[in-house]
């Protein structure tokens, strides 16, 4: 059975691009347009194996989303990758301190993204 990835990004273009890359690698993909939508999809899903999340989003930003996910025992060890245009040290430190496993700055190279995700999924 293929691993399930949840992609959370307010940009439809980015969601579609990352989903295309992940599906091409054989992953099952669900997309969400912001943190609130992401939580809804996470809770209603049959099991997500990894989350890829943006930082700047309406309604609920990526940092709040990660913090909310990490506060729940069920998702404490779920791998989370931040994929954001925010590449300043303070943003990276914030993402990592809230529980992200990896912080990648857009535009990320597809090969590198896939390699890192496969590594996180074991």
From TrEMBL:
Cleavable signal peptide: none
Keywords assigned: Phosphoprotein
4-aspartylphosphate, modified sites: 54
Gene name of this polypeptide: cheY-2
Domain Response regulatory, first and last residues per copy: 4-121
Keyword Phosphoprotein: yes
Origin species: Nitratidesulfovibrio vulgaris (strain ATCC 29579 / DSM 644 / CCUG 34227 / NCIMB 8303 / VKM B-1760 / Hildenborough) (Desulfovibrio vulgaris)
Protein name according to UniProt: Chemotaxis protein CheY
Pfam families registered for this protein in UniProt: Response_reg
A GO biological process held by the record: phosphorelay signal transduction system
InterPro entries: Bact_response_regulator (IPR050595), CheY-like_superfamily (IPR011006), Sig_transdc_resp-reg_receiver (IPR001789)
UniProt-listed SMART domains: REC (SM00448)
């Amino acid at each position: 059975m293929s691993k399930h990835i949840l992609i959370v990004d307010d940009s439809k273009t980015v969601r579609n691009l990352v989903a295309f890359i992940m599906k091409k690698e054989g992953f099952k993909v669900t997309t969400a347009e912001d943190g609130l939508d992401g939580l809804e999809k996470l809770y209603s899903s049959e099991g997500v194996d990894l989350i890829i999340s943006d930082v700047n989003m309406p309604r609920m930003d990526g940092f709040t989303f990660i913090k909310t996910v990490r506060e729940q025992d069920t998702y404490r060890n779920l791998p989370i990758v931040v994929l954001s245009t925010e590449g300043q040290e303070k943003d990276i430190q914030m993402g990592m301190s809230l529980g992200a496993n990896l912080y990648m700055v857009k535009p990320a190279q597809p090969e590198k993204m896939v390699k890192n995700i496969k590594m996180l999924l074991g």
